[in-house]
Amino acid sequence: MYTLESLEGYCQKCNKCPLHMTRTNVVFGEGNPNASIMFIGEGPGYNEDKQGRPFVGAAGQLFDRMLNAIGLKREDVYIANIVKCRPPNNRNPLAEESESCIEYLRWQVKLVNPKILVCLGAVSAQNIISQDFKITKNRGVWVELGKFYVMPTYHPAALLRDENKKRPAWEDFKNIKKKYEGLKL
Ligand code: URA
User: Fold this and answer.
1) What residue segments make up the domains of the chain, in order of their start?
2) Which of 74, 76, 116, 170 measures 20 to 30 Å from 29, CA to CA?
3) Given this model, what pLDDT does residue 185 score?
């Protein structure tokens, strides 16, 4: 059995896939260790790799604003990624990279024990919900996976590329707030 700290220790030394050779820092994830909501992105980008923290670049700043808009702060939630090391040039993680890394995420989910998982983007949803998940077609609908409520929504970087995605993403965030508040009743 791990603790988040001991798991992070293993993860920091991980060399299970070739991404370890090009990383600056492992981005393990961070946040409230007892959060009832966990946000799961794809993998570190340039800024995250430099700082060793998730969602700190431009997409992360938009993510923070969206969180704040539903009354949450980063300290309230837990934030992690499918892969913990940056794929070169921000390409999508390869299947074998995700497969060797997702064990860390499974442990993070087990240890934090959230009620809600939010998949940010297609790569996250494909690794968590189903391989053929289509984010444009299937986002915004709760999926019940075992004891978890899972909400797939757009990745904040996609919102920066395409303004038209902002409104549906905002609807998803309002839905997340509603579910989150319902849990507290
Ligand atoms: N994009 C992600 O998917 N994760 C991060 O941590 C940053 C950008």
Assistant:
1) 4-183
2) 170
3) 61
Measured CA to CA, the distance from residue 107 to residue 123 in angstroms comes to 19
φ/ψ (deg, to 5) at 151:
-115, 115
Return the pLDDT at 184.
Answer: 73
Q: Is the CB of 156 under 6 A from ligand 1?
A: no
CATH 3.40.50.720 assigned to domain 4-183? The reply is no
Q: How far is the CA of 185 from the centre of ligand 1 (A)?
A: 32
Q: How far is the CA of 81 from the centre of ligand 1 (A)?
A: 7
DSSP the chain: ---HHHHHHHHHT--SSTHHHH-SS----EE-TT-SEEEEES---HHHHHHT-SS-SHHHHHHHHHHHHTT--GGGSEEEES-SSPPGGGPPPPHHHHHHHHHHHHHHHHHH--SEEEEESHHHHHHHT-TT--HHHHTTS-EEETTEEEEEE--HHHHHH-GGGHHHHHHHHHHHHHHHHHHT-
Cα of 74 to ligand 1 centre, how many Å? 14
